[in-house]
């Protein structure tokens, strides 16, 4: 993955997604470029065209906070993308040599807490949205899929993904945006490089969405599933940051009380209860490396 000019690549990708009518630019015949022209972004942001071109080309890499904010408005960026733009413009000083990759582990206290939610699916995700741990119902929710322990590969490589996710297009967009948000500005992360490289080769849909540079933190959302054992499920999830383990997220799913989805979730819990001897199987509390 080319990391020489992340700011320029981000600006260009986002510029190509903005339609002139999105920023009140009147149509002026046929346009030969996707999205806005460079001079239009410069005009909207209040900077010279030459300066903006230098930003995209990587000849200028550190715009001021005021310029970054003006560019964010010109490119109609959402909140998470604005924060990402500022991080690209002002990376942390004194970048140190990357330490050797370490296995991501989930704290025993968090595992015990998840065990105490027998009726609530819960999973812990790592930096690249790999499933590091789950409680019984969380594992049952994704069980039966080739890539059940890797949510990105599940969406784009699993042959049953479009059946499992009735709203697959929206899930795909949000998954890629969430992967970018989880990765932050560290595009040299070996795990991220491996994931993006594999999926870019194997999935045209992933390649197209990754090139958009959408970025959106996982927070909360209503998601639909079509489970092989219990049928349709409509669940709301909350994504919680694990402060004791930077990069990890606890995802908790809930069904609306009294709904058919709550009944289906209860049925799923009953179906797996007798088959599971312990809340976590050996793979669910280890890292991706040790379970590969």
TrEMBL record:
Gene3D superfamilies: 3.30.450.180, lambda repressor-like DNA-binding domains (1.10.260.40). It comes from the Bacteria. PROSITE patterns: HTH_CROC1. Residues 31-82 form the HTH cro/C1-type domain. It holds the Pfam family HTH_31. GO terms for molecular function: DNA binding. InterPro entries: Cro/C1-type_HTH, Lambda_DNA-bd_dom_sf, MLTR_LBD. PANTHER family: BLL4672 PROTEIN, BLL4672 PROTEIN-RELATED. This is HTH cro/C1-type domain-containing protein. It comes from Streptomyces malaysiensis.
């Amino acid at each position: 993955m080319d990391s020489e000019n992340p700011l320029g690549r981000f600006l260009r990708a986002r510029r190509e997604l903005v339609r002139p009518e999105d920023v009140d630019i009147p149509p002026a015949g046929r346009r030969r470029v996707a999205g806005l022209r460079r001079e239009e972004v410069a005009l909207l942001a209040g900077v010279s065209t030459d300066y903006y071109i230098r930003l995209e080309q990587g000849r200028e890499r550190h715009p001021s906070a005021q310029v970054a904010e003006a560019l964010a408005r010109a490119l109609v960026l959402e909140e998470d993308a604005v924060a990402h733009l500022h991080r690209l413009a002002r990376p942390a000083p004194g970048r140190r040599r990357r330490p050797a990759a370490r296995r991501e582990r989930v704290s025993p206290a968090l595992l015990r807490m998840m065990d105490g939610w027998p009726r609530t699916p819960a999973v812990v995700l790592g930096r690249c949205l790999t499933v590091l741990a789950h409680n019984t119902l969380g594992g049952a929710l994704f069980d039966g899929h080739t890539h059940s322990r890797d949510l990105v590969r599940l969406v784009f490589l699993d042959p049953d993904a479009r059946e499992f996710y009735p709203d697959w297009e929206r899930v795909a967009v949000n998954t890629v945006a969430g992967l970018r948000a989880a990765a932050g500005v560290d595009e040299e992360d070996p795990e991220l490089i491996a994931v993006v490289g594999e999926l870019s080769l194997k999935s045209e849909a992933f390649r197209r969405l990754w090139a958009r540079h959408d970025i959106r933190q996982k927070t909360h959302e209503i998601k639909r599933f079509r489970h092989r054992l219990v049928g349709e499920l409509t669940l709301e999830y909350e994504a919680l940051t694990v402060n004791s383990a930077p990069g990890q997220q606890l995802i908790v799913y809930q069904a609306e009380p009294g709904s058919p989805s709550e009944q289906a979730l209860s049925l799923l819990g009953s179906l797996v209860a007798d088959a599971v001897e312990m809340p976590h199987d050996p793979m669910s509390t280890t890292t991706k490396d040790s379970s590969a």
